[in-house]
Amino acid sequence: MCLRPGKMPKLLVLSDMHGDRKAVEKAKGIIKKDKIDMLVYLGDFSEKLMDVEANIADAEYLVKELRGLTKVHALFGNCDVPEVRKLLEDEGAAIHNQVIMLGKTAVAGWGGSHPTPFNTPSEFSEEEIESSVEKLMSEARRKGATQVILFTHEPPARTKADKLSFGHVGSSALRNIIDKHQPDIQVCGHIHEAKSEDLVGKTRIINVGPARSGHFLEITVGDCSIQTREINL
Question: Would the pTM count as exceeding 0.70?
Answer without folding.
Answer: yes
